[in-house]
Write a structure and sequence with these properties.
Layout lengths: L2 H26 L7 H25 L3 H13 L1 H21 L7
């Protein structure tokens, strides 16, 4: 197994661990109903954001420990990150559409 494969495997495990933690905390705080569908949803979303952070951090050339930190932070905070991403995407789309002269004035 190469170093890259090992880092990817560790990042996957960290993401799954974070997703499990977010689910259990949500159940404890009565935000999430304790069922399999919600558990799998948390795991999938944690994996998506964790892997996104992994590939972004790798592309930036960050150290291994910083990559793992980015994976943990992203997979633990996917709700906040998705909200920020959505707001920036909407602003970018509005900027593109607004620059086309669509206001009719």
């Amino acid at each position: 197994m190469t170093d890259v494969e090992k880092m990817l495997a560790v990042s996957l495990l960290l993401s799954l661990l974070s997703g499990t933690g977010v689910f259990l905390l949500g159940v404890r705080e009565y935000r999430i109903k304790p069922n399999v569908f919600n558990f799998v949803t948390e795991l999938v979303l944690a994996l998506i954001t964790g892997l996104t952070a992994y590939f972004f951090a790798r592309q930036q050339g960050l150290d291994e420990i910083v990559i793992y930190l980015a994976v943990l932070v992203a997979s633990n905070n996917w709700r906040e990150l998705s909200t920020v991403f959505k707001e920036r995407l909407i602003a970018a789309i509005n900027g593109v559409l607004g620059s086309k002269g669509g206001s009719g004035q």
